[in-house]
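DUF4383 domain-containing protein: structure, please.
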Amino acid sequence: MATHAPRHETRRIRLDEHLPVDHRLSQIYRVGAGLMGLVLLAFGILGLVNKVGFFDISGDTVAGLNTNGSLSVLSICVGLLLFVGMIIGGNFASTLNMVLGVAFILSGFLNLGLLETDFNFLAFHIQNVLFSFVAGVMLMFFGMYGRVSATLPHDNPYWRARHPDEADQEQRAQRRERGEVLRKGTGE
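Here you go.
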C-alpha cells in the first residue's frame, strides 16, 4: 500500500493589469504622478528659459535648486514620463511611481557622493540632493499606496491577489447573501 504525499496545489497569483478607471487607487496613482510630473516639468522649463549652460557645473539657481541645461532636460523628460503614467493610470502609474521613486533616492545618494567633484555633471548641490530624496519618498508613497500594508481592506485588488482562497470564500459568501436577499424580495 503506497501512500502518496498530499499534493499542494500551487496557484499562480495574477494581478489584474487594469484597475477600473474610476477605482480610487488608480486616482491616487494618477494624482501622484501628475503632481510630481508638474513640479519636474516646471523646474525643467524654468531652467531652460533662464538659458543656463548645458553642462555648466557651477549651475544657476531656479526655484531654490541648482540646475544646468542637462538637469533641466532630464527633469522635463521625467516629468513627461510621469504625465504618461498619469494618463495611463492603474498598475502602470503605480509601478512607474515606485520605480522612479527608487531612482530618485538612488540619484540622491549618487549625487551626494559627486558633490564638489568634477563629475557633478548635473550641477547638484545639497538642496538638490535633499529634493531628490523628498521627491523619491513622495513618488514611492504614491506608488505603494494601497499596495503595501498589513491592513489592506478585503475589497482591495492587491489583497485579493495575495489571498485568493480567502477572496473566493468571501465572494461566495457575498453571492449567497445577495441570493437570499433576492429570494426574500421576490417572496420565494
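Notes: DSSP finds six helices and two strands in the chain.
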